[in-house]
Structure formats: structure tokens, C-alpha cells
Amino acid sequence: MKKYWEASYRFGLIGGIFSVLAFLVFHWMGLDPTNLSMLFGYVMIPVFVFLGIRFFKKYVNQDWLSFAEGMTIGFLIYTLFAFITAMGIWIILSFNSTLFAELKDKKLGILESNKDMIVSQLGQESFGTTLAKVQEMVPWDIALNDFIWKMIPGLFFTIIISIILRRTNN
């Protein structure tokens, strides 16, 4: 397991740091950093997973890669990427209550502007429950949401990249 960790941690670490910096840059640009951070993750996770798996295959494993090894390396990369991003977002929002209040207000505004559609599709009770949950939201909720939405595409991209890069003794 040590060789997998040593070959992958730097890709997850660098990707996570880039993602936290992107969150800050999006905020400074006056954009919604939560949505753009997720979009940034959809673009950057496959890049870092590909680079990490390719690095492992070429420089650690003598140009050989099984599907399981690719999945292991990819899992370590996208999990570390997602964890660092979530921790960074949580820290930023915990110390910057103004930013958190802005994000919460935006989410409440979006919910209110879509009230009719939500009520017609899901009912008044569902809208009320969602509204209450958003009003009770804390910084950790935003960070956890970002973590989850980096893990899901990370798994998807890792499967595809592992299949593409695998090389067996056939």
C-alpha cells in the first residue's frame, strides 16, 4: 500500500490545493464559488487522476498497470483531492462568516425563486422541509456537499481512466 500512497498523494494534494484556491478566486471574482468549485472539480479531477495513474504506471510499476492498481491510485487521488477541498472550504467559511452568509442568502433566494416549480413537483411539505434545512445550514454542510460531489465523479473518471491505461501481460 505504501507504493500506492507514495505515487498518488502529491496529485491529490496539489489538486486539492488548486481547488481551494479556485474557490477563493471565484469568490474574489464575484461568482458563486460553491457551484464553480464543483464544476472546477469535474474538470480537474480527471486530469489529476489521469496524471497520477500514468505516473504510477510509467515510473513506479515499470509500464504495467492492472485495473485494480489504477482504481487504488485513482481512489487515493480523488479522495485526497475531495478531502483537502472540503477542509479548505470549511475553514474559509468558518472564518469568513460574511461569505457564508452571502452563500446562504443566494441559496435561499434560488429556493424562493423556484418555489412554485418545487411545490408543483414535490409538494408544499417538501418545499418547507428544504427551506428549513437551508435556513439551518452551517459551513460544514457546504464543505460536505462539495466533498460528495467530488467523490462521485472521481469514481466515475477513475473507472474509465483505469480501463484506458491498464496494461496486462496479454
TrEMBL record:
The keyword Signal does not apply. Pfam families: DUF4199. The chain crosses the membrane at residues 12-30, 36-56, 68-93, 147-165. Keywords: Membrane, Transmembrane, Transmembrane helix. InterPro entries: DUF4199. It comes from the Bacteria. This is DUF4199 domain-containing protein. It comes from Mariniradius saccharolyticus AK6.
